[in-house]
């Protein structure tokens, strides 16, 4: 059994090492549209294959593009082309200072993925992650009927619902950070609240 490197119920950390920051970014790329617990286990397996290196990015560079692709296939990650290209394009990002726009230049990285990474790695971040759980919370718990079922792809529509969501979050959960609220709503709406 592999060690879990990312605990989906405890993902906010503003003091990650370079290794942890790169690992979390890889998780963000891999988890898009997938189960977070399964993704964490798969990522753990992938990292054991490149563990002799000081950071995940260093190990991936050593594998090369073809080696990375083969590793993803061997571990049945799915969406091989998207994920391999996104990871490879990420290898020279400065994950401590990159902007949302920098992240979105990476192949396949969306509004949601870029904001998710920033929200849970940068203290005082004001990004809103419109995943299916947050959107469902807006519909079911806040009574907003015109909220879409899936993450809006157009920037204007995303920002409209993100602004509305931010207002609702800060109204319903005063005194908590947006990262804390995001994680609480995800935990509740995904049925993981204990």
Reconstruct the topology from this structure:
Elements: H1 18-31, H2 36-49, H3 56-74, H4 80-90, H5 100-104, H6 111-119, H7 132-140, H8 155-172, H9 178-189
Helix pairs in contact: 1-2, 1-6, 3-4, 7-9
Task: Describe it.
The chain has helices at 18-31, 36-49, 56-74, 80-90, 100-104, 111-119, 132-140, 155-172, 178-189. The protein is elongated, with a radius of gyration of 17 Å. It is built from 9 helices and no strands. It is an all-alpha fold and 194 residues long. Helix 1 (18-31) runs antiparallel to helix 6 (111-119) and helix 3 (56-74) packs antiparallel against helix 4.
Following the backbone from N to C, one meets helices and strands in this order, namely HHHHHHHHH
In terms of DSSP E residues, the strand content is under 5%
Low-confidence stretches: none
Number of beta-strand segments: 0
Mean pLDDT: 92
Main sheet: strands, sense, barrel = none
Helix content bin: 55-70%
Number of helices: 9
> How does the overall form come out from the CA principal axes?
elongated
Question: What Rg is obtained from the alpha carbons, in whole angstroms?
Answer: 17 Å
The span between the termini is 25 Å
Helix/sheet category: mainly alpha
Short précis:
The protein is mostly helical.
Please supply descriptive tags for the structure shown above:
single chain, 194 residues, 0% strand, mainly alpha
